[in-house]
Design a protein that fits this description.
mainly beta, six-stranded mixed β-sheet, Chemotaxis protein CheW, CheW-lke_dom
Length: 136
């Protein structure tokens, strides 16, 4: 399996690369009145209105500065085919991961977490975009 690694608040996270459609620079976002706290706004991406989510808010990650990139997810991967992107501080790399290196998520934080990936001397939190969509 391949994952896309990215940074949030100084920590490394990843998502299954099969969910990722593209990565774009952060542009201007339009605020949406009465939107949930984790929705930063919407943007026009090639004629499609795309909701931009701040995963730091969903995961209770400390804000460390302005996110510079947006990971856009493949809408076909979601039940309602919603166009969604995540604000991330930095995109690191695409990496091949063995399922033998994936541990179950900690019980108290398993709402959005698929597992914990052991990589070298580092632990990487694997997040499920489809689970975060259900929070929306």
């Amino acid at each position: 399996m391949q994952v896309l690694e990215f940074e949030l608040g100084g920590e490394t996270y990843c998502v299954d690369i099969d969910y990722v459609s593209e990565i774009v620079d952060r542009g201007s976002l339009t605020s949406v009145p009465n939107a949930p706290e984790f929705v930063e706004g919407v943007m026009d991406l090639r004629g499609r209105t795309t909701s931009i989510v701040n995963p730091k808010t969903l995961l209770n990650v400390e804000e460390t500065g302005e996110a510079s990139r947006i990971v856009i997810f493949d809408a076909k991967q979601f039940e309602d085919e919603a166009a969604i992107g995540w604000l991330v501080d930095e995109v690191d790399q695409v990496l091949r991961v063995s399922m033998n290196d994936v541990e179950d998520p900690p019980m108290e934080r398993s709402d959005f977490i698929e597992g914990i990936v052991r990589r070298d001397d580092e632990l990487v939190v694997w997040i499920s975009p489809t689970k975060t969509e259900s929070a929306a």
